[in-house]
Amino acid sequence: GREATHDETNGTRPTTMAVGSGTRHGVGAQVCGMVGRLSRCHPSAAAGGRPKKVLRHVSKARSQGALNSSRGVSFRTRAIAEPARDSVAGSGNAEDHQKDAQRRPGHLVRKTKIVATIGPATSSWETFSQLADTGVNVARLNMSHGDHNSHGEVVDLVRRYNKENNAGIAVMLDTKGPEVRSGDLVEPMELAPGDPFTFTLTQKGLKARKNTCTVNYDDFVNDVHVGDLLLVDGGMMSFEVVAIKPKDVECKVVDGGVLKSRRHLNVRGKSASLPSITDKDWEDIEFGVRAGVDYYALSFVKDEHVVHELRAYLVKKKADIKILVKIESADSITNLDKILEAADGAMVARGDLGAELPVEEVPILQQRIVQTCRKLGKPVIVATNMLESMIDYPTPTRAEVSDISIAVREGTDAVMLSGESAYGGFPYKSVQVMATVAERTERALERIEGMARFGSANSEPITWIEGNDGRGMSEVLAYHATTMANTIKSPVVVFTRKGNMPRLVSHYRPKSVVFAFCENEATQRNLNLFNGIVPLHLKFSQDKEETFKRALDLLKERGHVEAGQEVTIVQSGTRPIWRVAGSHTIQVITVE
What is the pTM of this model? Predict the structure, then answer.
């Protein structure tokens, strides 16, 4: 690759801006941040750990230097070179990545996060650690499969990996939710367009009836009407309802195929009259509390009331677990704004969403959901079918590559893998492709100026977070820190206990990365879902200068510093650390 150039600034005196009451902060050993262009982030590096395996384009910068005085910092670093772009079908071997990395100094950061579903292909220590090394930020537990023992083992794997690598991978428990499914069949049925077919609620005389299958939902006959279109597995087969009887729904096959046992059923344009949280879901939620998961992804949310119900339960259990709502039903679109206001974030679950609503609506709804979450300052995940072909093949379709890029341009916090990483044949390459495409798109977005550089030309600019929940001065600081960092081309550094300020800064999508030093490991894991935040675990002391020095050493070890670098440090948030309560500061420092 060619050598990247950076402007250098002489001097070490930091500029300090104070807002509100309190004292002006003195000059001291400060933290220096990231260098140059943003690239792929190793998860253990994002958490400040020492990885055993590294990706291509990533190496430990041979930084030398020491804290010269209490007023400045001096370093000598190797030149940072922009990595060459290898084929996404390149080797998935970690040793090859390490050899490749040794030729490319510098350790840069990907901002879009990756959620990976953990399943049979990635549930051993060897397979999970290799997947995590490849760039995963959040591990998803799909409660539609497996049991509590198997999912508990995955949680243990994540905790072990985080401890050994000082990483901050979060755990997300995805509930099964209410599902309407066909019953068991003696053998698969091959159906052609025009064939009659019946879904029944009774087992009586079933063996003697041709082209008939049970359904697991007693109110099925009340939820559907003549003329409705029933979809099997999101559209793999379809049936038109032609008659309804007390125990039967008679249909005509529209799109034929082979019907197997226990297939998922949707009614186009309608949601089933089932509770959003089933008895099984409550058992899984209780398991999540015991296991200490970081996020719930709540399936088939119809309105805001179910979010309030779950939050009240978590308050009673004294469990600080964030609630992500999966937008995947017709009812969820009708109540979208209230649902998103009640939740901590959202997932665009495009599979069932495209079954209950016309598929041509899905891209429009995706943009709407992403932009609404952006305005509310809440994280959003784009999921389903992102690299579906890589379950069976080592390279993606070009449409899948574009799909990831579009989601990144719209401003999503994260993109997600399902079967690709759970049971597919190429889980590591799937993560590599997702990371590479996201990284390349982010570099292209660097050319666009202003707060509205995410989303289409029709999207409204993203400025203040909508609603007033008491953030006040902290939000003002986050906004202006982002503006300042973008102007002087510097990263943002925040020391945080609860993660409030890094989340606010992430909302405004600074062009560089946000280094969030966290004393609490749960806060570190929680922040790992947010766009552009690199959460690093660090114990704080009463001595600000000593804490800054240890933070600086951690960044040096990860290769995130360079002489002449300017860094924007924000001192704000709901809980003061080294500042007087009521004072809020932005400091810009230069490293010699």
Answer: 0.78
